[in-house]
Amino acid sequence: MNKVESRTPDESEVVMNMLVMPNDANPNGTIFGGVVMSWVDMCAAMVAQRHSGKNAVTVHIDDISFLAPIKIGDHVKIMGRVNYTGKSSMVIGVKVLSHNPKTGEERHTTTAYLTFVALDDIGRPTSVTPLKLVTEEDKRRHEESQIRSKKNQKKRN
Fold first, then answer.
1. Quick check: is 113 in a domain?
2. Which residue in 25, 92, 26, 95 sits closest to 66, CA to CA?
3. What is the pTM of this model?
4. Cross-strand pairs, 31
5. Mean of pLDDT values over 39-54
6. Which residues are CB-contacts of 137 (< 8 A; sequence separation ≥ 6)?
7. Residue 47: helix, strand or coil by DSSP?
8. In a domain, 45, yes or no
């Protein structure tokens, strides 16, 4: 892969679509939180790899909020994008929407923030492509994620 000077959040964005099946759900007919978390982590991993052009691993899940239930038969859209880059780390924001194909109702069900670190060929942290902020929304997300990243670093020290 050719070295890229910078990449916008749009260039690294990943959108996944899933269908909630009975084996994904609890006795209430709603999806297990762990299934949603695995989809969120998978989406964020693809964003991190797309952005950095390298293997990347989850090092921190800062926040995951389950805002509304997702039911068997719902179509689920998982959208991830880079909000912030450090030297070797990336903060990925993920938003999950559910869509009921019978009623047309769409709901924002989950929001999460994950930190990934890019790895070189022998598994050591390596530098990532800088983030090119284009829109005011990109800049807002970057600022919020930078604050979140600094708070998390203080927790670890």
1. yes
2. 95
3. 0.92
4. 25
5. 97
6. none
7. helix
8. yes
**Residue 3 in domain:** no
Is pLDDT above 50 for 144?
A: yes
| Residue numbers of the domain that contains 110 | 9-156
Two tokens at 41? 């982590």
HSE-up of residue 15 (Cα within 13 Å, Cβ side): 7
pLDDT of residue 52: 95
Number of independent structural domains in the chain: 1
- Within a domain: residue 21? yes
Q: Is the pLDDT of residue 157 over 70?
A: no
Q: Is the dihedral of CA 86, 13, 142, 132 positive or negative?
A: positive
For the chain, report the end-to-end CA distance as a whole number of angstroms. Answer: 35
Given CA atoms 143, 10, 114, 107 in this order, what sign does their dihedral have? positive
